[in-house]
Amino acid sequence: MNTEQYISEVVLRAVTSLYGQVSPQQIQIQKTRKEFEGDYTIVTFPLLKLSRKSPEATATEIGEKIIAENSEFGGYNVIKGFLNLSLSAAFWSERFEEIKGTENYGHGEATGRTIMIEYSSPNTNKPLHLGHIRNNLLGYSVAQILKANGHNVIKANLVNDRGIHICKSMVAWLRYGNGATPESTGLKGDHLVGDYYVEFDKHYKAEIKELMAAGASEEEAKKKAPILLEAQEMLRKWEAKDEQVRSLWQTMNGWVYDGFDVTYKALGVDFDKVYYESQTYLLGKSIVSEGLEKGIFFRKEDGSVWIDLTADGLDQKLLLRGDGTSVYMTQDLGTALQRFEQNSLNGIIYVVGNEQNYHFQVLKLVLKKLGYDWSDDIYHLSYGMVELPEGKMKSREGTVVDADDLVADMISTAREMSAELGKLDGLTEEQTSKICTMVGLGALKYFILKVDPKKTMLFDPRESIDFNGNTGPFIQYTHARICSVLRKATEQGIDYGGAVKADFLPEEIEIVKTLCDYPATVATAGAQFAPSVIAAYTYELCKMFNGYYHDHSILREECQTTKIMRLQLAAQVARVISDSMLLLGISVPERM
RNA sequence: GGCUCCGUAGCUCAACUGAAUAGAGUACUUGACUACGGAUCAAGCGGUUCCAGGUUUGAAUCCUGGCGGAGUCACCA
After folding, report:
1. Same domain membership, residue A418 and residue A280
2. Nucleotides of B under 7 A from a protein CB
3. Could you tell me if A178 and A220 lie in one domain?
């Protein structure tokens, strides 16, 4: 059982016997701050009305009661209204034995619940960029965390493979491509297609200028540029299933998918299901007729269908165009319904940028009004933009940070910095490249995941790859260091398995306490879909262990029992570090 | 203009459900050490938590009103 749960039961028992019935909310337990003595602290203010005594007297009374009835408690002290309870060394030693013997420590029991998490959702007209990286890392990590909490998780990717933007790339490729292919150019498929998207924009702008020079208004020129008309014509042909257009579309999308696969693999993310919008974009029309029948939606004169959300503080929202074709919202309603029905989901999480907050607010509300209770189980994991030290990135100004470039950059920076520190001496090229990949990616991932998702963040590559401070490499380093000690112990023939009874030093108790918090941390991270909770915990653990490691020799301890106990502690810390990094999708090396 | 989110040390970020003197890292200053991995450790400096009210025994956190920033309000996705 969780230590905090155990304490709260003990306290609840004591308080109930003293003051009668209390609600669990009135029992407030927190870890004692390190400047005070004790392990857990009870805040007595909420109990004063029941005790009818001063905060100090109430705290003392409860403390006495607990000490008298529970032998695990070593003592207590009272400061203002705070009751600080200390647990005995034996108690912590027992906890440690328990942790050591627990398979999959920190992972919750199977819940039988199935949750879908949709993330990544790229457009197929250009390569992935820094914003997608935050999306992918968040999605993958939250999926890992939910799995650790015992849920069945379906990782889904909805590829936006159709629409005017793809047609733009296609038109530009036909006009200016001269039959270029990834093979002929040596370019990654998604980059090749992306280049023609840029090419389109260039010519589009030029044509607008020409038309305006010939006397057209700006608005007119924007609508009548030949290249745009060509793209629109292509979209119509696509919708009419024109064979030639479809075939080119398939070829170019194929190039993009090959490119994406490489990027996803480099980032270490994957999917259980891939949906293509070309196959789902017609969904949702039945929902529209359902809404019309129930009188929740209404039809305007031109035949378009709307919902009026002004009573909920929102606007009117279009659900079906006048010509009967669907819009984004229509599709999303349809896919949501389909997914809940087909997979018997208990929840769905959409990892989508905060520019779509409004969209999801509407989505949930519409489903709610239609009477689908599962609309409450839709969660929009909204995240903020990633900015760079040089400023914002803007795709039009070509200041986007390409995902592939960034990953390559992180790895080569990791190599430079490791080489400078002489860490790569004597390693084969293969080992070096493996380690630098882990470190470079670990730096990137940790730096992004440690920040609260909803906040706009600033990504500084140089700062992220630091081997000190709150960074991925620092955590990886701590893990490698512990592994090194354990390796040496094995070489010396020390068997540190099995139970040992030895006394913990205060610093060691602190570490055990932190280890005890791990399951609660995983649960919290899962409940809030916040990898940052895991990151903060792991950093804290590493820092604590590093300090301890510095002050106490592990292998040189003369007393064999103490030595073994310390090795066990180190091994457990390494286990938890590596587990929690796995929840962030970061691999930890055994040496680096 | 309406709605949503953000505003915390010079900088990058924490602070779970409201609790004790708001914490880390970095930068800066000082010091420790024949080192089981110095990619170390300790100490110092640094704050009116944007402002003003309110609720509460207690507010960075909740409420109201400002200020500043971001996003959104398409028959785009």
Report:
1. no
2. 2-7, 11-17, 19-21, 24-26, 36-37, 39-42, 57-58, 70-77
3. yes
- Output DSSP code: residue A22: -
Contacts 24+ apart (CB under 8 A), A558-566: A559/A502, A561/A500, A561/A501, A561/A502, A562/A502, A563/A494, A564/A494, A564/A495, A564/A496, A564/A500, A564/A502, A565/A500, A565/A502, A565/A504, A566/A508
Is A532 near strand B, with its CB below 7 A from some atom of it? yes
CA of A466 to C1' of B25 (A): 10
* ipTM topping 0.90: yes
* Residue A299: strand pairing partners: A305
Q: Convert the pLDDT of each residue in A35-47 to its tens digit.
A: 788 889 999 998 8
**Whether residues A152 and A213 fall in one domain:** yes
Total of domains in chain A: 3
A35 touches strand B (CB under 7 A): yes
| Residues 445-474 on chain A lying near strand B, CB distance under 7 A | 450-452, 454-458, 460, 463, 466-471, 473-474
CA distance A229 to A219: 14
CATH number of the domain encompassing residue A371: 3.40.50.620
A371 and A425 share one domain: no
Alpha carbons A450 and A473: distance in angstroms, whole number:
13
**Whole-prediction pTM:** 0.94
